[in-house]
Amino acid sequence: MAERTRWIVSPCDRGTAEPLAAALGISSLTAQLLLQRGIDTVAKAQAFLQPRLQHLRRPDGDDAMAGFATAVDLLEQALVNRQIIGIFGDYDVDGVTSCALLTQFLRDAGGTVVPRVAQRDLGYGFGPEEAKAFAAAGCSLVVTCDCGTSDHVGLAEAAVHQLKIIIVDHHQVPDRRPDAAALINPHQADCRFPYKGLASVGVAFYLAAALRTRLKARGWPKLPDPRQLLDLVALGTVCDMAPLTDENRILVSVGLVAMRERPRPGVAALCEISRLPDGVRRTADLGMRLGPRLNAPGRLGSAALSLELLLAPDLATATALANQCEDANKKRRTVQDKVFAEALPQAEAAARAGAHMLVVWGVGWHPGVVGIVAAKLVDRFRRPAAVIAVDGDTGRGSLRSVRGFHLHRALTQVESLLVRYGGHAAAAGLTIDRQHLDLLKQKLDAIAKAELGQGPPEREVGVNAVVRLDELDERLADELAQLEPFGIGNPEPLLGLDGVVLSKRRLVGEGEQHVQVSFGYEGETRHGIGFSMAEHAPPLGSVVRATFLPEVDTWNGQRRLQLRLRDLEPQHLPATAPASDERRPSAP
Question: What is the spatial distance between Cα 574 and Cα 570, in angstroms, rounded to a whole number?
């Protein structure tokens, strides 16, 4: 039998939640989930459940973002003087959405803009080739998005061409500050802005909003509304796995509403190709449906296709571009599966040998998929992982982490081995000479051992409350949906069912990788789906326990309660397993 999962059940005394539940008109269970999030007054709950843009803290004044005023001055002068402005975005969704946001805003304000995004074969970030390209295009001012803070070589080349650089970024700031006209990065030491969790696209939104205020004060004739760009903020923030708290919660919540009510052509086309006929309904649709398709071109080459899609002027143009993104995503999956198959034996051998961090590499691996492969290794082995694609004498890799291990801090301890690196606590990237790979593996493993202890963490699932089957209905699902957007800092509320019978099991989806189930207990039945869980689903008739999020699923205009499974394991197996399960080729 598979390794047993330990439930970590949060304190849940529904009686203490009754006053809050009565004041808000919600169930005691939903009120208890608010209390678990530290929301213990009606005022806090109303602000949490109804996020408003007016609750955003200003990036100027006493809590100003460092470099912010200078950046606004430079952009205002560039518009007034009719200068050509370059906008450069890194190749992930945060970089592309940041680039799209500033490009659209500045163009709508009457500016001349040259947008560019990174190419995977040139490496991440703002490099010397990009500086030369912007100079050749006649730019005098360039804004880098989701990069620039550590791109000293590219910035030096920009200085040669007398380019002024504004850096819009959110990555960790190294000891050596970048040589730029303005650095807007909440993580720099002299930044007084209290919220440090913004993705680059959130910083870009603040910059556009402040520039509009400045232009309005001078009587500028074209004043685009930054609120029309909040769909891009939601998309980039969620896909970059930024914390969905405070400012980000407000920006993403309002952006999701905008995306549902007036989707831009590129988003509408992505929804259609992602089989979301009713559009984006929840945060997970961004991270699991739209994000991978937008990321795919940048993983395999240039992200220019994704930028073009987000800026598409009409649905016909957007649909053609979305189809190309879908083709790239299919190719990405094929490449990813090949790299994972080759990385897995290395990882298994390292795990058997007691490694605390997995560091694997291979010649010919595509650098665009190593981040996904690293994440899959972390999920399987519950250890931090680095996956490095070797080409000639150079390795380019991505790292993913587990709770309690800060990747960027770990890389600072081995920076003498690295050509280049950057990232966050949970995700990072590096470039390294091939000759240093073995030493890197030894040092990172030692650092992980010192920080994480003697072995991988026990497999565990956090459960907010254990419920009865008859408590699960559409009203509860609708209430829990009000806790969206879910992500880091505001995780999905997971409920637990114990001792229910698996009364139906159906394998669905491409390759029958998903499983639809029904649970029965004392005359009650509820239905659920586990994505990528078919391989480990218990046999029909098992007494099981499950963790899940109740949600309302809409299909062909019909609403129904569905339990979206996060974990499912047997407590007691049936005496005789059924001869076969129900199967069908695709999910409903």
Answer: 10
Instruction: Give the ranges where 470-559 is alpha helix by DSSP (H).
Output: 474-481
Alpha helices in 229-314 (DSSP H): 230-239, 246-261, 265-273, 283-285, 291-300, 304-310
Query: Is-contact 482 528, C-beta < 8 A?
Result: no
**Residues whose CB falls within 8 Å of the CB of residue 142, separated by 6 or more in sequence, listed in order:** 85, 86, 87, 88, 131, 134, 158, 163, 164, 165, 166
Please state the domain extents for the chain: 6-10+461-583, 59-226, 354-452
Phi, psi of 42 (to 5 degrees): -65, -40
Of all residues in the chain, what percent are helix, strand and coil, respectively (each to 5)?
45, 25, 35
Give me 401's structure tokens. 């982490």
Fold topology of 354-452: Diaminopimelate Epimerase; Chain A, domain 1 (3.10.310)
**Dist CA 280 CA 288 (whole Å):** 11
The CA distance from 507 to 188, in Å, is: 50
- DSSP reduced 3-state for 448: helix
User: Which three-class secondary structure state does DSSP give residue 355?
Assistant: coil
Strands 358-363 and 385-391: parallel
Of 86, 41, 95, 49, nearest to 490 (Cα)?
Answer: 49
- Per-residue confidence in pLDDT tens, the chain, 588 aa: 445 678 888 887 777 899 999 999 999 999 999 999 999 999 999 999 999 999 999 998 788 999 999 999 999 999 999 999 999 999 999 999 999 999 999 999 999 999 999 987 777 789 999 999 999 999 999 999 999 998 999 999 999 999 999 999 998 888 889 999 999 999 999 999 999 999 999 999 999 999 999 999 999 999 999 999 999 999 999 999 899 999 999 999 999 999 999 999 999 999 999 988 888 988 999 999 999 999 999 988 889 999 999 999 999 999 999 999 999 999 999 999 999 999 999 999 999 999 999 999 999 999 989 999 999 999 889 899 999 999 999 999 999 998 889 999 999 999 999 998 888 788 899 999 999 999 999 999 999 999 987 666 667 788 999 999 999 999 999 999 999 999 989 999 999 999 999 999 999 987 888 999 999 888 889 999 998 888 888 999 999 999 999 999 877 778 899 999 999 988 877 755 444 455 444 333
AA letter at 151:
D
Residues 12, 16, 17, 22, CA torsion sign: positive
Close Cβ partners of 18 (under 8 Å, ≥ 6 residues apart): 28, 31
Pick from 566, 499, 467, 526: nearest CA to 33: 467
| 98 CA to centre of own chain | 14
**CATH of 59-226 given 3.40.190.10, 3.40.47.10, 3.90.1640.30, 3.40.50.2300:** 3.90.1640.30
Phi and psi for 148 in degrees, rounded to 5?
110, -35
Domain 6-10+461-583: which topology? OB fold (Dihydrolipoamide Acetyltransferase, E2P) (2.40.50)
**Domains 59-226 and 354-452 agree in fold:** no
Check if the beta carbon of residue 528 is closer than 8 Å to that of residue 519.
Answer: yes
**196: closest CA among 133, 153, 230, 243?**
243
